[in-house]
Amino acid sequence: xxxxxxxRPLRTVFGMELRMTxxxxxxxxxxxxxxxxxxxxxxxxxxxxxxxxxxxxxWTPVPHPYTTADSEEWVRRIAPAQRTQGHGVAxxxxxxxxxxxxxAIRLRHTNWRARATEVAYVTAPWARGEGYATESxxxxxxxxxxxxxxxxxxxxTAADNTAAQQVxxxxxxxxxxxxxxAWIARTRPDDDPDxxxxxxxxxxxxxxxxxxxxEGNDGRPAGAGYSSYADWN
Length: 233
Hints:
By secondary structure, the protein is α+β, with helices and mostly antiparallel strands. 24% of the residues lie in helices and 31% in strands. It has 5 helices and 10 strands, in the order ββββαααβββαβαββ. The protein has helices at 44-51, 54-59, 68-84, 132-147, 162-170; strands spanning 10-13, 16-19, 29-30, 34-37, 89-95, 101-111, 116-123, 152-158, 174-187, 198-209. It has an 8-stranded mixed sheet, sandwiched between helices. Strands 1-2 form a two-stranded antiparallel ribbon. Strand 1 and strand 2 (16-19) form a beta hairpin. The chain starts with 9 loop residues before the first strand and ends in a 24-residue tail after the last strand.
């Protein structure tokens, strides 16, 4: 179930209705188990811990170590500005029953003329294995297509980030190709006695989801997967 959103003015150009807005509404999205909502001050401790998790450090460009000051900057300034400046929207993913933070989801690089945007997501280490990433991305996709009139949702996953690829596959995304050597990930070399992180270049898989890909989807993840990185090599 999705929360109601504000109606948006329309104008007609050459017989086509165009949406005037270039920002997403300030909303919350509810699923059976989750509430996706704007970040709050109370999220700062859990958000700091989540962003220091090894999988998050490895596959995202977040600062490391991720400090409380970094989290405060995100919650108070950066995340709200994503929406107000028209770039996208950043939402905390929380459990409906416990209200604890279990992840984050972000729309970015939004093209308002093309009605297309890119989604990125992370899951807290204490909430992995529950299908929360799949559930939250699917909910955002349904909201985008059904309530916001968007025509394309894009995901980009690092070649070895199989967890992110599984999310894309489960919601019914189609893999469109590989951007070679297009991302910098981080790894811990086995021969490093200090256990520090080292930057490594990697490929990115481009995935897409269109409104017709969700036709007949009753809100549950798709059972069939699509092409993986191995299929492109």
